[in-house]
Write a structure and sequence with these properties.
Largest sheet: none
Number of strands: 0
Strand content: under 5%
Radius of gyration: 13 Å
Helix content: over 70%
Shape: rod-shaped
Structural class: mainly alpha
């Protein structure tokens, strides 16, 4: 669940960053995907750490 939420939040932040820099649709797609991927990986790391530390 954290991974999916991280991906969605990352996509939204990436779209906002690309729009702020004046990017076209392909720029927004790329920024959204890359930010989503990074946030999803961070969410995966958080999920693994939570599972490891819980017992």
């Amino acid at each position: 669940m954290i991974v999916i939420a991280g991906f969605v939040i990352g996509v939204l932040l990436g779209l906002r960053a690309a729009r702020k820099r004046g990017g076209n649709r392909l720029d927004m797609l790329q920024y959204g995907f890359v930010h989503g991927l990074i946030f999803a990986l961070l969410g995966l790391l958080a999920t693994i750490l939570a599972a490891r530390l819980s017992g």
